[in-house]
Amino acid sequence: MSESTPAALPSAPGPVRRAGAARLLLAHPLGLVSAIVLAAVVAGVLLAPVLSPQDPDVSNLRDAFGGPAAGHPLGFDSAGRDILTRLLHGGRNTLGGAVIALAVALALGVPSGLLAGYRGGRFDSAAGWVVNLVMALPAMVVLLASRAILGPTVWVLMVVLGFLVAPVFFRLVRGIVANVRNELYVDAAKVSGLRDRRIVARHVLIVVRAPIIIQVALVSGIAVGLQAGLEFLGIGSGDTPTWGAMLNEAFKNIQRAPLLMLWPGLALGLTNGALVLLAAALRDVLEDRGAAPAVRRRRAPAPEAPRGTDGTPAGAGGRARLLSVRDLAVSYALPGGGEREVVHGVDLDVRAGEIVGLVGESGSGKTQTAFSILGILPEGGRVSRGSITVEGQEIVGMPERRHRALRGDVVAYVPQEPMSNLDPAFTVGSQLVEPMRCKLGISRAEATRRALDLLSLVEIADPRRTFGSYPHEISGGMAQRVLIAGAMSCDPRLLIADEPTTALDVMVQAEVLGLLRRLQRERGLGVLLVTHNLGVVADLCDRVAVMKQGRIVETGTAEQVLHAPGDPYTQRLLGAVLDDVPARGPWRPSNAEVS
Amino acid sequence: MSGSTPGGATAGPLLAVEDLRVSFPGKGWRAPRVEVLKGVSLDIRPGETLGLVGESGSGKTTIGRAILGLVPVGSGAITFAGERIDRAAARRRRELSRDIQVIFQDPYTSLNPSLTVGDTLSEPLLAQGYAAREARERVGRLLDRVELPADAAHRLPREFSGGQRQRVAIARALAIGPRLIVCDEPVSALDLTTQKTVLDLLVEIQERTGVSYLFVSHDLSVVRFMSHRVAVIHRGEIVETGEAAEVTAEPRHPYTRGLLLAAPVADVAAQRARRQAFEREYGAAT
């Protein structure tokens, strides 16, 4: 399956953990700024005793509401205490509280999530219940109640908050681990004789690491905010300085000295903002590294219309009317700038009523060629050279609107993976009816009648039942028939089928191939069949083009190419076909050393 | 090992599966269990390849996973070298990994993307108590045996093509010198030319080491190339077993005949004949 779309493309660098996530984070502008801000805040708070050696509770009522003075750059609060000192010391409590809440949440959520996700079963269901229960509790009420019972200290409140946040980590970890558990490499590790503990440590933890780090940044923001909120409401430890408590005091005097609100507010805002931005930057760095840089789709310059006889490199005389490709090149933007060409100058013709096979191995560019004709190259890819004409119209450089009109009307497409090309949320019928109503402008009743006709055209035994089914209720072969029906709905003249039977079992494949042959015969359809299977070529194709590394190495009738291949690569391909290989002889008790 | 059968011309089977039944919980609340294997019996002799052919959903992969202990066995017996292993305890299971190994279908997901090839290969060795240095040397030899460059040990799976990754998976399976390897569609994700070289490698390894294969595939021609005997599975039941040449050329069961006629051959005239025979017999396209 990986051989269809952009597998062989200039794959943007995958998860490059080795390149250093930290370096990448610092290269990210948001990451850099938020990291600097956080580092400054943490350093200031940690070094509070050095930076301002006086006690935060030293008050001198004469200085109350006093402005900045020597040694007191931010002035004094309502009780004549130094604001900077209180900010620095208060930050220790605020941030320390957040750290406690986080530690509790991590200690509870991560191990239980690992266990529930990896083992599943009873522990998973029990833990699920508990977690749902905790999540249903209104956090504020629990915190208020716990203060009433356990006493007004910041630390206890933060432990309780940790309990309340733990489900976030549990759910995150459990979800990821439950997926990883089904990975083949985890099965392989089991078969290798590894203990569960070792499998979790080696194969599972590594996967949850990045999401946990991101979540930690987010949750610490929430913890800081919630704690400040509680203190602001006066629900905290009354006497220890915290940013929330400072806000509370300042709020009482907001009429008299509005500026007092500024400093703790600023500290909270900066810290929280930096945490949220850091989380966003971490997400970019750790999770979305596969994403290619946004590249604006550039259009290839439209070739100087008919390049018929004069300078055409491939010669080949006249171009087929239905589909003709000349000197097609497809390029992909590289993440670091620049482009890489993956298809280098392909010539191809499909006439009406003819099935042309485009054969090649993965990465040969066959799917890229098909996508170029359809105008559905994935993000970052473009036709960088050449000309493609469909019924005489040049489609390279054609505005997207006109191209869209061409798709469906003249050119139709049958994809490789039937199931992933049907929307699971809609019935088969509606997925056939809607495009027809839109494309042909006919009434719903008329479209329904046509859809039922189409379903019987593609040899579906009970069209009415299939019409009302959802995609998950039908088999893969049936789904492919539905997609063929959809492709035929606007009576196209050219069908582009990309490995239409690769995902199907052989019996179903034989039937679908038979269907394609019949449709082609009855309707005089031109078909471009992309495939890697030489048997399918022998079964269906009139002519074949063999592709290798973005070039066509050989073209000819199916008989010529399959029975008298000229190109060494085609010969090698045919040499690897196992059809005529003699069966392996019967087993004899071996004289090998085993047993 | 334990039974140590007196090595005669008629060596007993290395692995015997008898009346194996496996079912999975149905989807939805109180749905009945879905029986995937409905009493499957097969056996594999030392140094033999048994090909297991079937379509998707036939249960062929489940047989392999049951032998490996990756799915719980409902009823029936799996005997390896004279020992019942269908309900082996976790500890015994880990020991068995010395004898029974696996090569999975998808070389992309069967290797942990964040471990180097060397780490992946030394994992089973370390788990079996090899010293780190010894393991490293052995990894070097394994890479050599599957024809990968020696510096592959320090690289990550994503730097390799599908065929090369499958060679890594083969090396991992060979690491501890197993007696049976379950090959679950090992070449179906590979290109035609790569497929041939990987199959050649598997045959060569078998001839050299005398390892047995349970070779699971949907492709009759691949199975014919690889197997001494072939079993055909259809909807959780084995419908035909026999010598590879017989089953793949003159199948007796109608289902096997259908499989054979439906598989297209890369020969225009032969394929035309095959297609006509298929349509005659199954009345497909009209």
TrEMBL record, chain A:
Residues passing through the membrane, by range: 25-51, 95-117, 129-149, 155-173, 204-226, 261-282
What topology does it adopt in the membrane? Multi-pass membrane protein; Peripheral membrane protein
- Supply one GO molecular-function term: ATP hydrolysis activity
Kindly state which keywords UniProt assigns to this record, in alphabetical order.
Answer: ATP-binding, Cell inner membrane, Cell membrane, Membrane, Nucleotide-binding, Translocase, Transmembrane, Transmembrane helix, Transport
- List each copy of the ABC transmembrane type-1 domain by range: 91-287
Protein localization: Cell membrane; Membrane
Q: Which Pfam families match?
A: ABC_tran, BPD_transp_1, OppC_N
User: Which SMART domains does this one have?
Assistant: AAA
Q: Which family does it belong to?
A: Belongs to the ABC transporter superfamily. Belongs to the binding-protein-dependent transport system permease family.
Write down what this protein is called: Peptide/nickel transport system permease protein
Per the UniProt record, the source organism is Planomonospora venezuelensis
From TrEMBL, chain B:
Gene Ontology BP terms: peptide transport; transmembrane transport
Which top-rank group of organisms is this from? Bacteria
* PROSITE patterns according to UniProt: ABC_TRANSPORTER_1, ABC_TRANSPORTER_2
The Swiss-Prot or TrEMBL record annotates one GO molecular function as: ATP binding
Q: Using the record for this protein, list the coiled-coil segments as residue ranges, or answer none.
A: none
Q: Which Gene3D superfamilies match?
A: P-loop containing nucleotide triphosphate hydrolases (3.40.50.300)
- Keyword Nucleotide-binding attributed: yes
Q: What CDD domains does the entry give?
A: ABC_NikE_OppD_transporters (cd03257)
Entry's family note: Belongs to the ABC transporter superfamily.
| PANTHER family named in the record | D,D-DIPEPTIDE TRANSPORT ATP-BINDING PROTEIN DDPF-RELATED (PTHR43776:SF7), TRANSPORT ATP-BINDING PROTEIN (PTHR43776)
Protein name, please? Answer: Peptide/nickel transport system ATP-binding protein
Please name the taxonomic classification of the source. Bacteria, Bacillati, Actinomycetota, Actinomycetes, Streptosporangiales
